[in-house]
Amino acid sequence: MVATDPRRNIPRTDRLLADPEVIAAGEHLNQATIKAIIAEVQTAARTGEIPVAEVAPTIISKLGSRAASSLTPVLNATGILVHTNLGRAPLSPAAAQAVTEAAGYVDVEMDLVSGRRSKRGTRAKAALLQACPAAEDALVVNNGAAALLLAVTALRNRGTGAGSGAKRDTAPNPVHSPSTARSDASPGEIIISRGELIEIGAGFRLTDLMTTTGARLREVGTTNRTHLADYADAIGEDTSCLLKVHTSNFRVEGFTSSVEVAELRTLADEHELPLIVDLGSGLFTPDPALPDEPDIDTALRAGADLVIVSGDKLLGGPQAGLILGRTEAVQRVAKHPLARALRTDKLTLAALEATITHTSNPIHDALHIDLDRLRERTATLAEAVGAAIVAHDGRVGGGGAPGVPLPGWAVELPEGCAPALRTGDPAIVTRVHQGRCLVDLRCVPETDDDRLAAAVTAVLGRLGDGA
Ligand SMILES: *Cc1c(COP(=O)(O)O)cnc(C)c1O
Q1: Which residues are paired to 201 by β-bridges?
Q2: Can you name one GO molecular function term for this protein (predicted)?
Q3: Ligand 1 pocket list (CB less than 6 A)
């Protein structure tokens, strides 16, 4: 480095912190945040990314424009409805408003008429039961994984679950209650089909989750075929429950067979065992747009003691785990000590209630999109940016309906557009497939079409200039 290297003149932190313009721009931020931004810009100058003269102005502009959180809003142009990397379900305007209203002090655990303490989540629960009359009771927890963990933990004491005429056990005490003493020593076996052992993403396996409870998994059948007799043969002294899991993110095709919930109910009754059904995706009732996707109502009517779903998949709400089912089973789960550790917050309860009580939300709307309108919008975009329109299938995504195409269209751009669109403003995430960058408008709010077109035009212009 030569002596005249301008990088030696990068302003020092104490000088920048004392600069009146920096102080003014950062008055809404704390010292740690301001220092981090200063350090980041100094580094950019040191590595030659920005000229030294730009250090102070860059810091001032960054401080002034710093968003409340560094999560960047994204236009989802992938055609994938429930995109885990993009935060799954976007909230509806009603749900977003409910979150804002619940942000302050709210009567989440108080009856304002009597001034007494009330139960948490009463109204979200009432909304759930209205939406799903087959459920006698419901509980909301943090997410689907928490719901499953809690359900298999709380229902594992044999003979005390929701099965036919089983006795209720509200305060397990090994000293006074010999029936629970055995279960405490041995958490028992969860019986599950080999065709339903799933990894839900990022290396997390439901099987590992369940064995953290100390329970053992008793896998039955084969990957492609499981019969009622496989379950029946596996039931023994140590069986704690029967579990059926929806294979939400893959499909086994060809020579296959699995056992219906109703058949499992009969078997569970014969042995007084609880039957838990983890559906994952979260439809309340069958949806004609996804004919093979299981729903809560059908599973409960077929005899599940508990049905588990996520709030932010096809339900289109906030991250949550919903447990619906028979009163006795839900109450056992609700009273388990673990329920307190997995309970949901007021913001989630507010968003969930708003989602359930309104007909429209972004996931529902994208699934049932008017195809003529989608085609028109796509054609308008193609024309505006001077690109071709191609047939393109959207997908539900990790949230359900594996392998089911949602036919539609996309605008086809050169692959090189994808990174520029992702890092632009607005940030646009497209589908990169077979050397092309595909822009699918299914999950893009129509009100953002113009912004999106302008961003694509700008990127194509820059790429055309060889920039
Ligand atoms: C998604 C899913 C889960 C996990 O739910 P989260 O809300 O992501 O915790 C559990 N079981 C099934 C079948 C799922 O599809």
Answers
A1: 204
A2: L-seryl-tRNA(Sec) selenium transferase activity
A3: 143-145, 148, 200, 206, 245-246, 248, 278, 280, 310, 321
Separation of CA 338 and ligand 1 centre (Å): 18
Please state the φ and ψ torsions of residue 179, each to the nearest 5 degrees: -65, -30
Same domain, yes or no: 368 and 347? no
Say how far residue 80 (Cα) sits from the centre of its chain.
13
Nearest CA to ligand 1 atom 7: 144
* Owning domain of residue 39: 6-65
Shared-domain flag, residues 234 and 248: yes
Q: Is residue 18 part of a domain?
A: yes
Is residue 275 in some structural domain?
A: yes
Ligand 1: centre distance to CA 196 (Å): 13
Whether residue 1 is contained in a domain is answered as: no
Name the domain boundary from 359, 379, 403: 359
Domain boundary among 359, 382, 399: 359
Atom 2 (ligand 1) nearest CA: 280
Dist. CA 145 → ligand 1 center (Å)? 6
Do 241 and 382 sit in the same domain of this protein?
no
Q: How far apart, in whole angstroms, are the C-alpha atoms of residue 334 and residue 355?
A: 23
Q: What is the pTM of this model?
A: 0.89
| Structural domains in the chain (count) | 3
Report pLDDT digits (tens) over 202-248.
788 999 999 999 999 999 999 999 999 999 999 999 999 999 999 88
Closest residue to atom 11 of ligand 1, CA basis: 280
Domain at 457, CATH number: 3.90.1150.180
Q: 248 near 277, Cβ under 8 Å?
A: no
In this structure, the residue with its CA closest to atom 13 of ligand 1 is: 280
- What pLDDT shows up at residue 203? 83
Is 128 strand, coil or helix?
A: helix
For ligand 1, the distance from its centroid to the CA atom of residue 309, given in whole angstroms, is: 7
The amino acid at residue 28 is: H
For 115-137, write each residue's pLDDT tens digit: 999 999 999 999 999 999 999 99
| 92 CA distance to ligand 1 middle (Å) | 21
